[in-house]
Design a protein that fits this description.
Elements lengths: L4 E6 L1 H4 L5 E5 L5 E5 L2 E2 L27 E9 L2 E5 L5 E4 L13 E6 L2 E6 L20 E9 L2 E7 L8 E8 L4 E3 L13 E3 L1 E2 L2 E2 L3 E2 L6 E3 L5 E4 L1 E2 L12 E6 L7 E6 L10 E8 L4 E7 L5 E5 L21 E4 L11 E3 L2 E5 L11 E5 L7 E6 L8 E6 L5 E5 L13 E7 L6 E7 L13 E4 L7 E6 L14 E9 L5 E3 L4
Parallel strand pairs: 34-38
Antiparallel strand pairs: 1-2, 2-3, 3-4, 5-37, 6-7, 7-8, 8-9, 10-11, 11-12, 12-13, 12-14, 15-16, 17-20, 18-19, 19-21, 21-22, 23-24, 24-25, 25-26, 27-28, 28-29, 29-30, 31-32, 32-33, 33-34, 35-36, 36-37
């Protein structure tokens, strides 16, 4: 005998039907479907909900599975990204490969037993800004595989460049990895772009929020959204925020969108994510926080609105559209599938009861619809996800200072949706060590390439207080996707 659990459900709010449809796994393990609370019999058809057919008790059911998580492996490497050929790019807190987060490295093999090679040209003590001034040292914060021979990585400096951030290119020339912006050699150690740079200077704390801050269409076409969080910035003076574009694989960048440069005006706070929608050949840009939260849709070819155009007015420009309804437009990521686009909102206010899940239209105009609330714990709003091949998605939360550990300790929650309509809190993992008072976010969550939907990895680095390993260390968790048993699994819960 097991736990009776709901596997799948659609109601009249999401189907525009007067009927409801639910699938339950009964205590004896059998599968049973219900229409308006009445059990369906074998062979009965439910067309109102989009379920073509259902055979009661048939294990080969035509609704998506719900996955939970179990820990498979850990590694002290903070995995930033995985290339199509399976290689990883990472940093770590050691004297060799990551040089205490001052260098990036690459690795092959399996997390937990990686074969690692340092990219010595990326060592921060030799890196420079985009005009050639040494940055002091490096705190590596993220990296992205652009092609088998190109990596873009992001980090900050020290001294005069403390908390000031940059993008660099690491380029493989056939015999060695080099770093620089001087194409085709790429070996002068110069940054490709100084994040937060404007006419009045170079602002602090303008960086990537997480891995979705950079989006890639192909090996040439990239977008990057600046995430600015300095509390000392003044509207129209030093709070510029940009969406940057590169058409040469990150070698050079220009501003696609610019906000907050007119004195006395403020159009956005920062960019949460830029995401290429391969199913529709469009870009999605996520803006936060209140009162500016929205999702922008761009057709990829139309001219950009003028600088300092409020996102709420983007619909007036050919090829641009916007969805904005208070917290309904606030998200750190979007799950993209052939027939759906949806997200869990980044709503972390403890005094706000709603935790909406929103589905976006897949065609013009851009319309959003709340389809329900997800099971958010106070202080743990969903922020980043990875898509599952069957239309589902696994989301990871952040941990705000308002996360007081009411269920035992401060943690990241993992939430699984099989369909973009129903959401289950399936697991949590402890923020190890002493979490402190700052917010904590993960760098990345992704399906391991070559393993199908069998495993996912999550990574975090200490500057975001994302300590995942025992002893309060940064690193990476590998988790197996397993059939969910109906309970919230505690993963790596040792302090």
């Amino acid at each position: 005998m097991g736990l009776r659990q709901k596997l799948f459900g659609l109601d009249n709010q999401t189907t525009q039907s007067s009927k409801s449809f639910e699938v339950w796994q009964e205590e004896d393990g059998s599968i049973q479907a219900y229409q308006n609370g009445n059990p369906l019999v074998a062979g009965e058809v439910n067309t109102a909900t989009g379920v073509i057919s259902y055979l009661a008790g048939n294990a080969s059911k035509n609704f998506p599975a719900i996955y939970g998580l179990s820990l498979a492996a850990t590694d002290e490497a903070v995995i930033f990204d995985q290339a199509d050929d399976g290689r990883f790019v990472f940093t770590q807190n050691d004297a060799t490969y990551g040089v205490y987060f001052q260098q990036i490295a690459i690795a092959s093999g399996t997390i937990g037993s990686l074969s690692k090679t340092a990219i010595t040209a990326s060592l921060g003590t030799a890196l420079r800004n985009n005009t050639g001034t040494l940055i002091g040292s490096l705190l590596a914060r993220d990296a992205w595989w652009i092609s088998p021979t190109r990596i873009v990585f992001q980090g900050s400096g020290t001294g005069a460049y403390a908390s000031k951030n940059f993008l660099w290119i690491a380029n493989y020339n056939g015999s060695a990895w080099t770093v620089g912006n001087n194409s085709p050699a790429f070996d002068n150690k110069y940054a490709a772009v100084d994040l937060g740079l404007h006419g009045g200077g170079h602002e602090v704390e303008v960086k990537a929020l997480h891995h979705r801050s950079l989006g890639k269409k192909d090996a040439s076409t990239l977008l990057f959204g600046e995430y600015g969080i300095s509390a000392t910035n003044t509207s129209g003076t030093n709070d510029q925020i940009r969406v940057l574009r590169s058409t040469d694989g990150g070698a050079t960048w220009s501003a696609l969108l610019t906000w907050n440069t007119n004195a006395g005006t403020h159009e956005v706070r920062h960019v949460h994510a830029v995401i290429y929608d391969k199913h529709r050949d469009k870009w999605l840009i996520c803006i936060g926080d209140e009162p500016y939260s929205c999702v922008i849709d761009w057709d990829r070819v139309s001219a950009a609105p003028p600088a300092n155009t409020a996102p709420a007015n983007f619909w007036q420009y050919e090829g641009w559209n916007v969805y904005k309804v208070n917290i309904y437009g606030r998200t750190g990521d979007i799950s993209l599938h052939a027939d759906s686009r949806y997200y869990l909102t980044d709503n972390s206010e403890v005094d706000t009861s709603e935790a909406p899940m929103v589905r976006l239209s897949t065609r013009h105009p851009l319309i959003g619809q709340k389809v329900g609330d997800y099971p958010r714990q106070n202080g743990r709003p969903a922020l980043i996800q990875c898509e599952m091949p069957d239309g589902g998605a696994l989301w990871a939360s952040m941990s705000e200072p308002t996360d007081i550990g009411a269920d035992g300790y401060r943690a990241f929650d993992f939430l699984y949706t099989p369909d973009g309509l129903t959401v289950f809190r399936v697991a949590k993992t402890r923020i190890t060590g002493s979490p402190g008072a700052q917010a904590a976010t993960l760098n990345n969550i992704a399906i391991l390439k070559g393993s199908g939907a069998a495993q996912v990895y999550v990574s975090g680095i200490t500057y975001k207080n994302s300590r995942l390993l025992p002893g309060g260390l940064a690193g990476t968790l590998v988790m197996n996707l397993v059939p969910w048993n109906g309970s919230v699994t505690e993963i790596n819960a040792t302090a």
